[in-house]
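Quick one - inputs below.
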Amino acid sequence: MSEVKYSKEHEWIKLEGDVATIGITKHATEMLGDIVFAELPEKGSSVEKDGTAGVVESTKAASDVYTPVSGEIVDTNQAIVDDPSKINQDPENSAWFFKLKIKDPSEMDTLMNKDDYDKFAKETSA
Amino acid sequence: METKKTSLYQLHKDSNAKFVEFAGYQMPIQYSEGIVEEHKFTRNHSGIFDVSHMGQLFIYGGEDLIKDLEKIFPLNLKNLKLNHSKYSFLMDKDAGIHDDLIITKINEGFLIILNAACKDNDFKILKELLNEKHKMVLDVNRSLIAIQGPKSSQILNEIVDEVKNLNFMSGNWFLFENQKVYITRSGYTGEDGFEISIPNNFADKLTRELINKGSKLVGLGARDTLRLEAGLCLYGHDLDKDKTPVEANLKWAISKERISKGDFIGSDIIIKQLTDGVSKIRVGIKPEGRIIAREKTKIFNQSDVLIGEITSGTFGPSVNGPVAMGYVENEFSKKNTKVFLEVRGKKHAASICSLPFYKKSYVKGANQ
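Output:
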């Protein structure tokens, strides 16, 4: 099993071969509240590390979703577009956002492991 | 300036509220269950809202006061029956709206409920307009608790006997723990419900009893989604000094008799707009699909010409889709007119629709 890594923008990323699955963390969903809208990147499009790659909206506000690594979008999760409440229910598993073919595996090294992220999330929400 | 706390602050804290600063007060935006659940619970059962940040202005007086207030408000106040309420506005001479409010005739004069962010300025304006002739008290010793939703009448009646006999937009004094509470059948959710003006020391006790009887605390987040689905305006967003009641499509709230006399502040502009029409008007807007168009979203016609702006927009949990209202040029205000909303650089189809998005279920009269 590959290790899950985390970004400061509260995305999680799981790398299998050269394809990474990306979503938003449980902590992010708790801060956002009820998610009622999700917009995903186009399949086949290229995204740059830390660039915008989608949007989620709660009843209160819209927030950008960023990609923690660069690459080409190979798949998106239509199920969360059709029913955005799934993101609140299972954010770090079935409610993934998109999969991309990564360009530069070394970008993974800039991200946090679970312990560091949990600490970061706790500190930044305090 | 330190943020103020309402008498229910501890109860909000005990109930895991997430707080937000609103009009100088620490107010609950939501509790643990979240905005969508709180919204639905209000529509299906009963929700309690702490609206103690709103202004409760008592103005004391008789015939003289009625005459003086008729110079300010576009209402037929001399015919307003004891304990009956009307929705109205405080306007400037150009009919721009300083605030929207509910005014109730009480024995000693009038009780006016004002928006939290406007209340101090309203007080100043009214004091000047009334020349300090009448005693005015912006009461900080009373809290205001709203209970809204289909089960609210039954729940409140278990605690305050006979309250279920109140008619919509009327009120009366009742007793709770031997304290005088003024209760009106009114609200801001599109549901049947009540607003309770109660001494601060008893607000917590009353609210805990309402919770024990099955009602639940609901935050400002759901208050906003509920009122928007009900097509009700939020001051500072859908209404402000650059908009008149005619432009806001609220001419129903202006007394016809008072228009014919035209002797209130702003009446010249109101009469002109009613005769000549307005260039912009408030409408309901339903985006196609799920895209949410929020405040300040630009509205375009089918020829890609800018025709207006959204003033409130969110996701409506009971509608299960996006809802919005805004102002468009009058010629594009007809129901079903196709428009486009610019969200994050892309244009999304929407149509002009009638309000409310969610059908009201006010009790027309328990005695009728």
